[in-house]
Amino acid sequence: MVGRDDDLEIVAKRLHKHGKITCLDGHVGVGKTSLVNVAAYKCYKAYLKGETPQLLIPSTTSYQLKKDGNVDQFCQEVFQGVARTLLNFAEELRDFDMPKGISLPHINSWLNSPIIQHVNSSLTGGFSVGSPQLGQVHIETGVAKASQVNPSAGFAQGGFESLVRSWLHEIFGVQGNGGVVCIIDNIELLETGSAARRTLEALRDKLFTVSGLRWAFCGANGVIHSLASSPRLTAFLSTPLDVSNIHPTALPPLIRARLAEFSTDPERVEHQLPIEIDDLVDLYLLVNANLRDLLGLADKFCEEWTGMRQPLTSKEKHAKFDKWLNKATFEKYHKLQSRISENAWAVLDIAMTRQFNGTFGAGDYSSFNSNSTVSFEKSTFARWIRDLVKLGLLSKSFDDSQSEDDGFSRDVFSVTANGALVHYARRKKNENFSVAEPVEWMRRVHV
Ligand SMILES: Nc1ncnc2c1ncn2[C@@H]1O[C@H](COP(=O)(O)OP(=O)(O)OP(=O)(O)O)[C@@H](O)[C@H]1O
Ligand SMILES: [Mg+2]
Questions:
Q1: What is the rounded distance in angstroms from the CA atom of residue 387 to the CA atom of residue 406?
Q2: Nearest bound ligand to CA 25?
Q3: Which of 78, 207, 376, 396: disulfide with 365, CB 3.0–4.6 Å?
Q4: Which domain-ending residue is among 205, 220, 243?
């Protein structure tokens, strides 16, 4: 990971505190999932190096809440995932050569526990976990095969859950011994703050109090902040960490780190890449610093040039990228252009000026007027925003309040990566004429 040293340290510290759930909020695609996963893995490694007495084990599965999801089913998924994680890591830890001087008493008790003694290799390469009273459950090991735990006949869900609970208790029974780090990711997919709160409240006593489990929540658009308004959850949550965009200056080392990770000769690969790193930095700004969309678009671009004569000169690369960018953004724009009114487009143009940098409150319509040739009224402003949200060019943040009908004026909106790309096409075509004083904040556009 590049550019996240401070964040990694904060997340690791929070995961080590056993009292509260670690919470991360940030724009879509900024790197929340990677941050929490890497932090959990570093915690695990720190234990192996003897730097901390707490053993934190990153869960091999991450969890996602579903709209109208079933609470019991979700809990079942979690306990199955935890069982898989413990089995996988038991294998790894068994082979691990402990550095001299580090005593790991609870690992020994885990590996020698009566429950794991019941773990037998089966013919298919999986394990059967069982005890005489509870029956048996078959667990496939290895990431690729580990999609399902198949509870066989007679093995009740409750039985499996209590087996895993007792297992966790045995390993992490002493508070502060550590736990399995489980992540509930993409909570914003529940679409409303109240749906997220309701679902998590229902899970609270079933999951968030289990000893030996450490929880982390990730979500975008303020959904994590909106959880704080639930009296049933607040005491369980740490203050959300706002994960911000990686600074554009960290992008070249970030790209090079990926080249180093994924190739044996990074320098040659950088030379052969059909795209210049400087162009990637520009593209990063164009997609409103959305790392996921940047990497996705870069991939798309590179795919188009596979098989071309290699290597290209910098100038050639740059020209090809420019041509591709224009084509890609103009096509996106043309598909949407006639679907909303010209005035709705004006909202996007003004939102992308330096005044707002892509994020604004619905109550800001009067400030929009100060830099616009189009006049915004409250009612029409609301309608135009809805149109832009429908096309996926704006996204709405979750509000902090309990009630869902608190009124439009509190809502906060952000331009999505798609919105930023379409806006780029408008600027290139000089169609953003509603902006009274265009401000240059994306240097690739030369109007
Ligand atoms: N600090 C980093 N260094 C290198 N690569 C990173 C870094 N942070 C994120 N990435 C890469 O950027 C992409 C997006 O990151 P990630 O999936 O963690 O974002 P996210 O915020 O969880 O996105 P979403 O909101 O869509 O779930 C991934 O491909 C990831 O590998
Ligand atoms: Mg994510």
A1: 20
A2: 1
A3: 376
A4: 243
pLDDT attached to residue 133: 41
**Final residue of a domain: which of 243, 258, 284?**
243
> Which ligand is closest in space to the CA of residue 250?
1
Which protein residue has the closest C-alpha to ligand 1 atom 26?
A: 29
- Pair 332, 344 in one domain: no
pLDDT at position 126, please? Answer: 45
- Extract the tokens encoding 330: 């103009």
Which tokens sit at 352? 């992308």
Q: Which residues of the chain have pLDDT under 70?
A: 95, 97-158, 175, 307-310, 399-410, 433-447
Alpha carbons 35 and 92: distance in angstroms, whole number: 23
Q: What is the pLDDT of residues 94-121, one digit of tens each?
A: 767 665 555 555 566 666 665 555 543 3
Judge if 311 and 373 occupy the same domain.
no
Measured CA to CA, the distance from residue 168 to residue 165 in angstroms comes to 5
Torsion sign (Cα): 200, 202, 206, 211 = positive
Is the CB–ligand 1 distance for residue 230 below 6 Å?
Answer: no
Task: Kindly state if the Cβ of 223 falls inside 6 Å of ligand 1.
Answer: no
> Does residue 129 sit within a domain?
no
Kindly state if the Cβ of 287 falls inside 6 Å of ligand 1: no
Per the structure block, which two tokens stand in for 223? 């959904």
pLDDT digits (tens, 9 = 90+) for 230-282: 999 999 999 999 999 999 999 999 999 999 998 889 888 888 888 999 999 99
Beta bridge partners of 414: 359, 395
Q: What's this model's pTM, rounded to 2 decimal places?
A: 0.82
For atom 19 of ligand 1, which residue has the closest CA? Answer: 31
Q: Is 4 in the pocket of ligand 1 (CB under 6 A)?
A: yes
Q: Are residues 345 and 332 in the same domain?
A: no
Position 173 scores a pLDDT of 76
Spatial separation of the C-alpha atoms in residues 311 and 389, rounded to whole Å: 42
Q: Are residues 64 and 156 in the same domain?
A: yes
Q: Whose CA is nearest to atom 5 of ligand 1?
A: 1
